[in-house]
Amino acid sequence: MKRYHIYGAACCAALALASVTIGAAAGQSAPAPNASQIEQQREIILRNVTVVDTVTGRLSRARDIVVRGSRIEAIRAARKSYPASARTVDGTGKFVVPGYNDMHVHSLTVAFPGRDDELRLLLANGITGFRQMSGTPALLKERREGKLTLFPHAPTALSMPGQVLMPLNAANPAMATAEVRAQKADGVDFIKLVEADPATFSAAAAEAKRQGLTIVGHLPDRIDVRTAAAAGFHSIEHMGPWATILTSCSTDEAGLRQAIAARPARQFGGSGNGEALPAAMLEKIITTAAAAPALTSMRTNPGFLPMLRRVIDTYDASKCAKVVADIKRSGAWMSPTLIRVKTSIFPDNPQFVQDPNLRYVAPAARALWLDLGKQFGAQATATDRATLRDFWKLQLEVLKLFDQGGVPMLAGSDTPGQWNVAGFSLHADFDLLAEAGVKPLKILQMTTLMPARFLGRTATMGTVAAGRNADLVLLDADPVANAANLHRIRGVFREGQYYSREALDEMLAGVASRRATPGSN
């Protein structure tokens, strides 16, 4: 039997030519095939593999998966042999799962050049789809006009918002309402909000609902998570972030909310006359502020860490369990991005500074991240660090409550924030979810089945079944037995195109080479 490492288009053209020749020999007319016909003729057989059921964790051994074009055509009992001409991939001893989805990335608006290389890093790590969490009018126009050109078989941008809502472009209810309407006209899939006062938040959520859009994002610190969830906040990102959920879990919730309300509103600048900033300027401000959240918060709010300490010291697990139950009943989702939470809390941690995967990051970004880490190290006191360490432990504890409480969750990385390397950071998130006590099957579901449910796409993704997209990850070991096995990627199918381990390593090497020189992508 032949084992093919298929990642080019030459085989497709050869197969099309063969079919044309056969038709001509039979005296039939044989027009040149178009690209769609060639795609329909392609067939690859993943042989003798174990199929992992992402719903139950059940393993179906000795299966052949027939991939035709970009879809799974059939799954059947493994055959002992195939003709020598058959295009096959040997899956003996391997496990197959749906392609991974990173449900919180910014790769299409990355601050440094090299959008395609960001997506190559995703694909090389088994990620075949992603939820883009920031957009611009220009990016939406590209997509709307079919001009969002990426390399062949790049991971799919499953969903995309416009510019994030914050006081720079949604300073009051009227501005928020107008911005939501404008983004609807631009063709957004959802609205993302990161900062708003209660009245503006309510206006944005109500207008999103009127426009048939969901609203997701950061929970503003002046808004109770239960109120937000009831208003339709569809997914809460980054465990809040910070103390926005934990405030509701405090025995001193009333006092904390009074202190938060008395604090001056966060200042973001702006025109001062109720007009939103230009798109390019807004994107630059957002990107810079998001690079090092802990450092930014410490600088802009001297009371930030003392307030965080107060939240930690008044945390009540039983009260938090009730908050989690309320969130569950509301139907809201959680995208914890634990890796982003950790890199935000420990921006000078040697684990991140010395990460060998930094070779895949643009030199300018590496330099910025290192500088921000040094600035944090120079400013943070021993007391500050103790507060942040305790906060991290509490985040893991609360994450476990969300898991036990049945709140649906999505895996995500928030790449390319500080120390978050595209693709690799999602795998780091898997490890942190396991550290928090999430079971391996649940972690697998958070990157496969749950994204499909969240997006309403279970007919095409999230499970390995006939008719589903041929976006698959071939693993060396059982991911249901141990979540660490999610890292052991032997190959990736993307739209039915197979990338062997060797091809994925070649892809990674190309990115590293292009990013080895200052000024490069």
Please state the structural category: alpha/beta
Identify low-pLDDT runs: 1-40, 267-274
The beta-strand count equals 15
Number of helices: 20
Shape: globular
Let me know the largest β-sheet. Answer: 8 strands, mixed
Overall average residue pLDDT: 88
Fraction of residues in H or I helices: 40-55%
Quote the distance from N terminus to C terminus: 41 Å
Rg to the nearest angstrom? 24 Å
Beta fraction: 15-25%
Would you write up a description of this structure?
This protein is α/β, with parallel strands linked by helices and 521 residues long. It is built from 20 helices and 15 strands. It has helices at 10-25, 35-41, 115-124, 137-144, 173-186, 198-210, 225-230, 253-262, 279-290, 293-300, 304-313, 317-330, 338-345, 350-353, 363-379, 382-404, 424-435, 440-447, 449-455, 501-514, and strands at 43-52, 59-68, 71-77, 88-90, 95-98, 100-105, 127-132, 156-159, 190-193, 214-217, 233-237, 333-335, 472-475, 489-494, 497-500. Strands 1, 2, 3, 4, 5, 13, 14 and 15 form an eight-stranded mixed sheet that branches. Strands 9-10-11-12 form a four-stranded parallel sheet. Strands 6-7-8 form a three-stranded parallel sheet. Helix 6 links the parallel strand 9 and strand 10. Helix 3 packs antiparallel against helix 20, helix 11 packs across helix 16 (382-404) and helix 13 (338-345) packs antiparallel against helix 16 (382-404). The longest helix has 23 residues, at 382-404. The two termini are 41 Å apart. Mean pLDDT is 88; it is low at 1-40 and 267-274.
